[in-house]
Amino acid sequence: MRVRNIGRDFKIEAYHPESSYETFGTGIDHPLSKRVDASIEDSAIAFIQSHLGVDTDAVHVRSAFAGQAAQHVYVKQQINGVSVANAFANIAFNKDNKVVAFGSSFVKASKTPSATPSINIKDVISTAESVPGGKYDTENHPTLTLEYLVKDDGSVALTHVFQVGDEAAGTWYQAFVDAHSGGLVSIADFVTKSALTCPSDHKGGLDSSFETLTDLQGLGALPDGWRSDGTTSTTTTAASTAPNNNFGGGGSGNDRVKMSVQDSAGTDNADFLAPLMARADTCACSCGI
User: Fold this and answer.
1) pTM listed for this prediction
2) CATH dotted code for 20-104
3) What is the distance between the alpha carbons of residues 158 and 165, in angstroms, rounded to a whole number?
4) How far apart are the C-alpha atoms of 65 and 241, rounded to whole Å?
5) 100 close to 24: Cβ distance less than 8 angstroms
6) 41: left (phi over 0), alpha (psi -120 to 50) or beta
7) Is the pLDDT of residue 38 over 80?
8) Is 138 within 8 Å of 122 (Cβ atoms)?
9) For the domain 2-15+112-189, what is the CATH code?
10) What is the pLDDT of residue 136?
11) Strand bridging mode 281-287 / 257-267
């Protein structure tokens, strides 16, 4: 569980269920291994159902990718036909159609409320707009959704999920508002600041003087960039590492980065807003003083 500080006066807990990760050497069979017509999506569902002991309708496939050497499937947990926002699983198959790796944060909820909301989503938007600050943008933000959210006590809350942001303040959040009580349950912050304030000598503790560090990237770790090993580019649009236009290469597209140079919203800083896939990222670089 993490505590997120939103502005000066507001804090909220962001919880992620414990995850597990297994590897299987050269690979193990899955329940559909002998079916030559089985898709990787169906194979993944069958394996997860068998491995975790869950029903087929508890698994919802989010995305899948088949390459020359491996195949990958990414899924979300479902309860009562409703997706669980923070419970996922991923599975990797080798070229021989054997399972070589499996990760999961699926849960067995201790308490599950009704999947039918008691409060209309239009009545709770103002809650998310007023607490962290920002507005719901009907034109540029994703469609409102209904999802369960796992809480740190093992129960799940039915939540209305939508995004709010304030371009001038450089904020962009995804809000989870309880669909039965109307209270704000959690948020996901899409903004990353590129400066860090820390003790000047990095060892002196809180009694030492402070300085603001910028250019925090470790170029020594990735001298050739994120999508290159120095000789070959590893960008694959079909695997959803996508620009705005994929030119028929697969993937969801619309992932361009919007740049704002000499942004008037702040001074001596920069931030990067990275929402969910298929939404344009935004980088804002403000002027120095």
Assistant:
1) 0.72
2) 3.10.450
3) 22
4) 11
5) yes
6) alpha
7) yes
8) no
9) 3.10.450.40
10) 87
11) parallel
